[in-house]
UniProtKB/TrEMBL annotation:
Its EC number is 1.3.1.34. It comes from Achromobacter xylosoxidans (strain A8). Residues 377-643 form the FAD/NAD(P)-binding domain. Residues 7-331 form the NADH:flavin oxidoreductase/NADH oxidase N-terminal domain. Keywords: Flavoprotein, FMN, Iron, Iron-sulfur, Metal-binding, Oxidoreductase, Plasmid. Its cofactor is [4Fe-4S] cluster; FMN. This is 2,4-dienoyl-CoA reductase [NADPH]. It is an enzyme of class 1 (oxidoreductase). In the N-terminal section; belongs to the NADH:flavin oxidoreductase/NADH oxidase family. One of its GO terms (molecular function) is metal ion binding.
Amino acid sequence: MHTYRNLLEPYDFGFLKLRNRMVMGAMHTRIETLDQPVQRLAEFFRERTRGEIGLILTGGFAPDLAGRMEEDAPVLDSPDQLAVHQAICRAVHEEGGRIVLQILHAGRYARHALCVGPTDQRASINRYVPRTMSAADIAATVQAIANTARLAREAGYDGVEIMGSEGYLLNEFVSLRTNTRDDAYGGGFERRIRFPLETVQAVRAAAGRDFLLVYRISAIDLVEDGLTGAETAQFAARLQQAGVDMLNTGIGWHESTIPTIAASVPRAGWAFAVRNIKQAVSIPVIASNRISTPQTGEQLLADGVADFVSMARPLLADPEFAAKARQGRADLINRCIACNQACLDRIFTERSASCLVNPRAGRELDYPRGRAGARQRIAVIGGGAAGMAFAVYAAERGHAITLYEAEAELGGQLNLARRVPGKSEFDETLRYFRARLAELEVRVELGRRVTAAELRQAGHDAVVVATGVAPRRPDIEGLDHAKVGFYDEVLSGRRKVGQRVAIIGTGGVAFDTAAFLLAEADESLSPELFTRHWGIDATLRSPGGLAAPAPQKAGRSIHMLQRSLDKPGGHLGKSTGWILKSRLRRAGVQTLAGVTYHRICDAGLEYSCDGVTQVLPVDDVIVCAGQLSRDEISLALAGSGLRVARIGGARHAVELDAARAIEEALQLAQSF
Ligand code: NAP
Ligand code: SF4
């Protein structure tokens, strides 16, 4: 059994003790926009505290109206707003945890008309032009932040985190990229760090010495004219002198064009930037970004990179992360796979966050844990994401489950997804399900294509059909030509593909298949490859930590085609689609919209576009034209008297993804 000695070591600030070195990082979940927000938030944090996390950082609360991220973002500026905070603090303290409120002033990232900044320079990712802050505005903002800290103390929080990274207001003042002022708050380094330092001093004065004061510093800006490593280290030391108890680290600005938390970032890939801060201060430092396993966290602490590790998304994926690490049961941790699909992508489209691998996250009130009244015998047909998840959720409710899978291994479409560069984290989902199914004593029959007749006789009470999808075979002449292959054959490695490729379709699977065909190696598994590809200066000598990206090697020639006139790749995830598109663009992949397919023949793919007919002379035509439901069994079970339910792709193939499959599994399991 692995013991995570460093992760599990308590920490004593004198006025505050933390039970371990695991921190739940701040996340703006938008849970507060759902019904019953107070109860929901309290339950969300209570569950994570029961899971033994050492310290929780809340999502960001603005100190005033100008500082809100968007119109309906939460603000804490008045005693009338304390009720929700008191409920949250009570829930956490009742369970023996500690909680800190994050104060976030969005600066020029604020998506509303009151947006302010060091100058009136608009952020590339925001359509609102900021108003330049006057010295009086700055003084008022310092006081507003101090006032929020005072209110946080009154509500019962154990401290506050001042958000000073990711390109938000305080970060904007520190950086030459955004701060071109020539007054007392701009110009030289000393003047640019003045606003953050005055903020820290005011918060300390307002909230007292025995109140945890965390500052989140940008460890590497990843934007032009950002700080060098030496300047960041100097700033960190000045924050300590100003009275900060602990430094948390942020990586990159929201406008930077380098991935910072997506799955293509290697685990603990930013350790070099965190270490730079750790070496400059004697107060504890928190490492963050792409720390999703106890092993990764333990290694960072053992190597002296940081004193704490912050995990935000991993705590959505598994609220019991810390408890399982303590018990030496890391194999049972439901790991965050850094897909961003059900968390950030939902937040960016103004929905509330949950988690692909744990749809209970943020919905704890809707899906209470508990045993069912009567134990039922349920057959689950299909061991993909939907089938495995249903088997686990239903077994947790006390039902006796038999899971039939026709293939020799569990996983279904996840076995294809895991082969896509940057998606190897799906291995963790498969590992989790296998471990959990074994622990719950679910009977798993692999390589077993069960028939309706067998199911009728087996004495089950219900059958859940989770037989998934099959690739769509579009009606194009020549589809049986030897040049034609389907994405499942390519991703599974069953089909060898030549140098010149046409891909029919431009959906997520087509982009993934193109990325697969272009990849020399998976950069998420190689920090060296990652930094070279994206142009990151790991020595931190250059401003913002930027370097010239390595030139792309000539690889396959790929054309991706679609019939519609929509923007190719327009449906990719908001927070990850740009990474995929940028990678393919750099590799010279061509996309064609508005095509009509004619035929596939020895010469290649014949199509017309804008009234011109031509032939793409390719070696292979790979079909990624969506999927159709696969369900031969439901009809055969009609009239059997068994309850039959369908989930995932077997129920509805269009726009299927693992998030929907797993959520449907949870919903159905709750009904048994
Ligand atoms: P999809 O997103 O529905 O895309 C299907 C593609 O096939 C479209 O480009 C469509 O373009 C084309 N197509 C559909 N019917 C066709 C026909 N009869 N003949 C020729 N072309 C046809 O399906 P998918 O790519 O398989 O993805 C499935 C689901 O997984 C989606 O919900 C997707 O969002 C999700 N996914 C997402 C990602 C990601 O975000 N990275 C990765 C993998 C999967 P035209 O109809 O215009 O020709
Ligand atoms: Fe992690 Fe994906 Fe869940 Fe977000 S949705 S917490 S990235 S597994």
